[in-house]
UniProtKB/TrEMBL annotation:
A cellular-component GO term for this protein: plasma membrane
One Pfam family of this chain: Gate
Signal peptide segment: none
Record keywords, A-Z: Membrane, Transmembrane, Transmembrane helix
Domain Nucleoside transporter/FeoB GTPase Gate: 46-147
Transmembrane in keyword set: yes
Name the UniProt record assigns to this protein: Spore maturation protein
Lineage of origin: Bacteria, Bacillati, Bacillota, Bacilli, Bacillales
Species this chain originates from: Pontibacillus litoralis JSM 072002
Residue stretches spanning the membrane: 6-25, 45-62, 74-94, 155-175
Amino acid sequence: MPIIATVSVWIIPCIILVVFIVGTWKRVPTYETFVEGGKEGGKMAFSLLPFLLGMMVSIAIFRASGAMDAFVEFFSPILTLVGIPADIVPLALVRPISGTAAIGMTTELIASHGPDSFIGRLASTMQGSTDTTLYIITVYFGAVGIKRMGDALKVGLLADFIGIIASIVVVSIVFGS
């Protein structure tokens, strides 16, 4: 087994073991602290459930209603004129919202166009160049109780937009359209 595979298998158990050993050495009630942390994590996950559920239902409604297809069809002539494939637009729209939905769309694009196609390369690059801004803001800001998130949302969506544009430009330059 290569060394990196061995390290990747053993690193997390070793870190947990070191934490328990140091905690015990410093006379911290490690098991009780671990259980208390698990309780807090469960409470936090339960409190975030409505936000995540609302976001997932919204995405499903947006896709199932045909609104996304209508949006893409409406802007398709402009996108073609600029050299952006219309097939990539749903991924660009969903990526800031949901990583899981974006991975599903990327998988569909790669399966239908091929991994070495322009669209396959663009989808892969876009997947790595952008983030799930709305998911991050929902989970992390909701976890710590931040209510005013307007500026973070603007900056995050701007960064996603720049990542999408940069993906298109870089893939067009490197691989051609």
